[in-house]
Design brief:
Elements lengths: L12 H9 L2 E5 L3 E6 L11 E8 L5 E6 L13 E6 H5 L5 E10 L11 E11 L22
Parallel strand pairs: 1-7
Antiparallel strand pairs: 2-5, 3-4, 3-6, 6-7
Length: about 150
């Protein structure tokens, strides 16, 4: 009654659809991570401040903070915006997990409520615990005993 037709697409075709929505960040605990995004191109407020809202995909916990325009360390703000994020300042109490992020423009330097603000960018962030793993290699002497079958 119902039929499904499979299309023969190149292996990379699926990535085109994913790449449209997902922007990926990686924050490593115990470090200062660089967040590079394109906010100015959608911005409607001159010299806007930015509200960052991170929502854990596992627990729905939210981390919110504001970076004022002066903290944008980009050398070419018309093309990209760049912020240095001290990860433990905001994520010290959270374990390794995936987070959704949203960045809003605003005039306030203290408001943490995104209601009514202009959304500039969304994407995913992976919070890395930076657990240093070490491997132990053991070596042992192997002795073979051969018997004469005659």
């Amino acid at each position: 009654m119902f039929g499904f037709e499979l299309l023969a697409l190149p292996f990379w075709a699926g990535f085109l659809f994913i790449g449209i929505y997902i922007r990926m960040l990686k924050f490593v605990k115990g470090s200062t991570s660089t967040l590079i995004c394109t906010l100015t191109e959608k911005q409607t407020i001159t010299d806007a401040n930015y509200l960052f809202v991170f929502t854990s995909r596992a627990t729905n916990d939210q981390v919110k903070f504001v970076k004022v325009n002066a903290f944008d360390i980009s050398t070419n703000k018309e093309r990209w915006n760049e912020f240095a994020i001290v990860v433990n300042d905001y994520f010290a109490n959270y374990h390794e997990s995936w987070w959704k992020y949203e960045i809003y423009e605003q005039t306030s330097s203290t408001n943490l409520n995104p209601a009514g603000l202009g959304l500039l960018e969304t994407g995913l962030m992976f919070l890395d615990d930076n657990t240093n793993m070490s491997f132990t290699q053991y070596s042992q002497d192997v002795k073979f005993t051969m018997y004469d079958a005659s």
